[in-house]
Please model this.
Amino acid sequence: MNVPFKVSCMSVAVASVFMANVVIAADEKAGVIRTESGVDFTPGLTSGFKYDDNITSASDSADKFNSWAMTVTPALQAQLIDGQTVFTVDAALEYGDYFSSSDDNYLDTLLQAKAEVDVNQSRRFGFDTAYIAGHEDRGSGIFEGTSGALQDEGNTFDILSVGGFYEYGAMTTPARVKLSAKYYTKEYTNFETVTQYRNYADTTLAGTFYYDTQAATSLLVELITVGTAYDEVDPTGKRDSTTNTARVGAEWQATASTEGSVKVGYQAKDFDNADREDFSGLSWDAKVTWKPLTYSSFDFTTGRASKDPNGAGDFIRATSYGVKWNHEWSELFATFIGFNQVTDSYTGIDREDKTKAYQLGINYNVTRWLTLKSGVNINQVDSTDNQFAFDRNVYFINAAMTL
Model:
């Protein structure tokens, strides 16, 4: 079960945490170190304390562990702009130290490079590559439902991704086409007797046709195919599959009050193993930002797609809905409050999980180079299998610093 607001550092969560700090450092108000070579360096540092009342996502019937923890995340971005070409390199570390549970300490790393090139008015291409050495909290990911009882440390993994795109069509003309490809691997580095069956590689090919209207809106048709191959055959049977998705929709840039994208279509997941249940059905993805005021915005998200389970089962139908309100009360203070609900319906086993996640926080811009952030993340997971049901609350205060 992969929960968007869950504290466990799954692959996407790790990247999101790191990139959030890089974005902070790259803010237009942040200090930039400019060199004669033309490369600009933007350093940033986030440090904070948090109190986690259920470190191992333990169910009500298991022992729960709580602890204060300190996190430190230094980040550095290097950027070179050469005419119509932009090269960017991001590097970051995140260290977590649990005061009452050293077994849960971690050190995650990120290194990412990307380039975007405008060949001429009609042609653009780019590439990106990233390496992440991350972790999953005890009792989460592959070990979900165990309450951390089978682990003496967090589950660690390496992620490597390489991708690129090519786009043809001038922005001033109605029609454009974009082709992209990505190779992504995830390999676990401990507890190999269990994790060896979850090492996998995804190969993604995609094509999108855009038709631009006169109102800053692009209609689109999107085709995506993902081939998933596991390194080892699972004891319950081979898990290799191909997932094809076809969607139509629209993207629009900021108007007077809204911006976003809406895509709706059909997804089919076919397993190489005939004993596993295939999936076909409605798939959608929508992200809309509404700004009724220049200093206040609402983010609405919803989606539905299939995904592979961490444990038993063939696949998961995941349906999510979310809303978040961001409000700037003054130049010094801003608040955010959010809610997200994810329903995971399993096939191959009788199980359904419903996760409700709440976010509440306040930002205080002390100076140009220092922002304090404080808040709470509340997670409530209900499941038809009580082994996977738990509550987890994390209270935090962070300091984000730049030059």
The chain is about 5% helix and 65% strand.
